Amino acid sequence: MFKYLISIALICTSSLFLPVSEPACTEEEISMGWDQNTPLSTVLFSLGEEKPAHFVAPDENEIRKGKELFFEGRTTGPNGKKSAIISKFYKCNNCHNTQREDPELTITDPQARLDYAVANNLPFLQGTTLYGTVNKSSWYNDDYIKKYGDLVLKARNNLREATQICAQHCSQGRVLKKWEEDALMAYFGSIEYKMADLKLSKEEWDNLLKNGNNAAKQEELRKMIHSKYLSKSPATFTEPPKDREAGYPVAAKNAANGKEVFERSCLACHSPESKVSDSYFEDDKLTFNYLKQRMNSVMYDSYYDLIRHGTYASKGHRRYMPNYTAEKLSDQQVEDLRAYIEEKSK
Ligand code: HEC
Ligand code: HEC
Question: Which atom of ligand 1 lies at the shortest distance from residue 327's CA?
Fold first, then answer.
């Protein structure tokens, strides 16, 4: 936990009455008006980057509406009445976090993400966090084309389209009205990366402040900034092991790590409180025996098939389980969870 607090401690303060623990802003910081807390897009736009199509000017009321749509599925519409629910089956946060979830923004590593989730008490979900999604330039990447076909082509370079697909298909809901789309864009804008997230070195930060107004240096500075985070969230679909009895070949299994996967991921939808799935898992032998029986099941989707392929929505049963890509759950983590299930069913 401690190591993630360090970046927050770097935020300077321009107040005259400095608490001793916070560093004062340097002259350059004050003259550019930027500090570690400045939203990334503010800096990029000043450096000459074009505003993306999803950009909307920040507005507290719009942000609040977008947040309500995200967490509750509805808000107050332009006519002053409660809007229609987006989906009866899901809320957006069933599959997406809205906080930072990766310790490093330049790589995608499911175990580093799980450790970070444990340290920061976050759920561990199939969808990518929407923190910083407005800073990316591509969505629904790579293998999602296998699941959603041509639908994703529109979404690849358009966050509004990506949001529409998710409302209609991932959430099994409906088309979003233009005002709802705008409110969600405003909310996403409010959870964009801050300069502190990029962890610039002292030299990089000083250089940025010194040359931010120098037109000849701006392109280089933009490139430096873009090198500090992934512009998209990679997605690789993988298969169950050939021999489901033997499982994935891994050197050793860590049941304690599997417990974290179970609690932060599976229970996010399968606990009696969450109401996402009507199949409830509890911390008892019944649950773990049931899961153990599914390990190599041929009658029903096996444990591995459920994780790697998910289930599909059908008429009359629209709730489905999203698959875990390799980036969201590693083979090692699948085996760690198996070890936990086997330990608990003894
Ligand atoms: C049942 C799970 C589920 C629900 C509910 C859901 N999503 Fe998603 N969403 C996904 C998955 C899976 C992806 C695939 C890409 C990814 O996130 O890595 C995705 C992708 C996205 C993306 C593109 C992210 C990226 O980095 O590629 C956006 C934006 C998004 N969803 C917004 C929403 C919004 C807004 C809602 C609520 C209206 C919502 N989602 C509800 C599962 C879900
Ligand atoms: C985003 C929500 C979500 C997450 C996370 C999730 N599931 Fe599911 N799961 C579902 C839904 C929805 C179904 C479909 C059955 C239903 O309608 O309840 C399902 C079905 C299942 C089933 C079959 C249930 C049955 O009655 O046939 C099993 C087993 C299962 N999930 C295990 C897991 C495990 C193990 C994990 C963690 C690795 C997990 N799920 C994570 C939503 C989720």
Answer: 18
